[in-house]
Specification:
By secondary structure, this protein is α+β, with helices and mostly antiparallel strands. It folds into 2 domains: about 130 residues, Thermophilic metalloprotease-like (3-Layer(aba) Sandwich); about 190 residues, no CATH class. It contains 13 helices and 18 strands. Strands 5, 6, 7, 9, 12, 13, 14, 15, 16, 17 and 18 form an 11-stranded antiparallel beta sheet that branches. Strand 17 and strand 18 form a beta hairpin. Helix 1 packs across helix 2.
Length: about 375
């Protein structure tokens, strides 16, 4: 009698995502987008989908072949919306994406106009996917890459393991921690964040509904064109801030990450609703100062507040707002959140884990 192979890290993650997060049903059609560095994860997802009696289709792109096309200036071909791919997309129930290109540093060095052309299919993709009423996820297991890990100063395997463990956290656990926070945001308006290390900041909520990031695609997400794909690992509650109200200072005790940079020791100081002073101990020039100088109106206004509830993400790169107990405050655009009106093309963040957060004078119970 044939025995099933022992579970691997890849198969364990695939099973958890397909059953707990995406709730894959027998007979559903699944597209899995895999690249060279994510192929083992993609193969495991396809195998687990079949075990669940679903129908997987693996779309594969080779990293070297992609960059060969970029070097050959085949931007129009790369950015095309091919009819056969969209036909498959229109018949898809579940889509799994792993952040495509591995070498994000090289990608960011391309001129913005070229990047826009290479990924010109993006709006068309969302049009077709939203009409198909598909649900899906972006897996951060595709982000860890050797040169980016070096840039962030984190061991590649450590980063990968953090993402793996964070994605395994049951959505029900995240919901139990996060739902009381979301309810408090729905009822309240005034926010105070303070600690014993110099943070004391008063903010006001914009009045829009908080977005719950607990690892499942909700009916509200399905109604939103850009939220039909959630993010895993999950674990945050986000809410738009009133762009006219902010007073005081927040001091970061966690690093902030962008696609190509890491900043530490961030401090934001607000007066009369405006950012009047900011600095970082390290990395602030690339991550914040340079884009801030050229940003449009609204760059100096409070953007959004996020509180993390995932117990397995210790300031993990690009998941910094999902660490249990992490409090993120942003400046700049917030129109992507309900109630947010600031359409500025800039966003900057600081993250403080362990601060006390009060809503209308009542302390929130934060995990971590």
């Amino acid at each position: 009698m044939a025995r099933s192979p022992p579970p691997t890290r890849e198969s364990e993650l695939a099973r958890a995502i397909l059953t707990r997060n995406l709730r894959l049903k027998p007979g559903e059609n699944v597209i899995i987008e895999g690249w060279s560095h994510t192929l083992p994860w993609a193969v495991a997802l396809a195998r687990e989908a079949r075990r669940l009696k679903a129908h997987p289709l693996l779309l594969y792109e080779d990293e070297d072949a992609f960059w060969d096309s970029v070097d050959a200036k085949e931007d129009a071909v790369l950015g095309a919306a091919p009819a056969h791919e969209w036909a498959a997309l229109a018949k898809t129930n579940v889509y799994i994406h792993m952040w495509n290109v591995g070498d994000r540093l090289r990608l960011e060095r391309l001129p913005p106009a070229r990047r826009n052309k290479i990924f010109g299919f993006n709006d068309k993709w969302y049009d077709v996917a939203h009409r198909a009423k598909l649900r899906g996820t972006r897996l951060d297991i595709g982000r860890p890459f050797p040169n980016l890990a070096e840039t962030y100063g984190i061991d590649l395997e450590t980063w990968t393991q953090q993402v793996f463990e964070g994605a395994l956290v049951d959505p029900a656990v995240l919901e139990r921690s996060g739902e009381p926070i979301a309810k408090a945001f729905e009822r309240g308006r005034s926010i105070r964040i303070h600690d014993d290390a110099g943070t004391d900041l008063t903010l006001r909520l914009a009045g829009g509904a908080p977005v719950r990031d607990f690892g499942r695609v909700t009916p509200d997400d399905m109604a939103s064109r850009f939220r039909i794909l959630n993010f895993l690992p999950a674990g945050a509650v986000r809410v738009a801030l009133d762009s006219r109200t902010a007073e005081g200072t927040i001091r970061a005790n966690r690093a902030s990450f962008s696609e190509t940079a890491k900043a530490t020791g961030g401090v934001f100081t607000f007066r009369d609703g405006k950012l009047v002073d900011h600095h970082f101990d390290a990395g602030g020039a690339e991550l914040f100062d340079t884009p801030y100088r050229t940003a449009k109106a609204g760059r100096d206004r409070p953007g959004y507040l996020s509180i993390g509830v995932n117990p397995k993400l210790p300031n993990t790169p690009q998941l910094e707002d999902r660490e249990a107990g992490a409090v993120l405050v942003s400046v700049g655009g917030n129109s992507f959140l309900p109630g947010g009106k600031n359409q500025c093309n800039f966003g900057g963040i600081v993250v403080n884990a362990g601060a006390t957060v009060e809503v209308d004078g009542r302390p929130l119970r934060l995990p971590g």
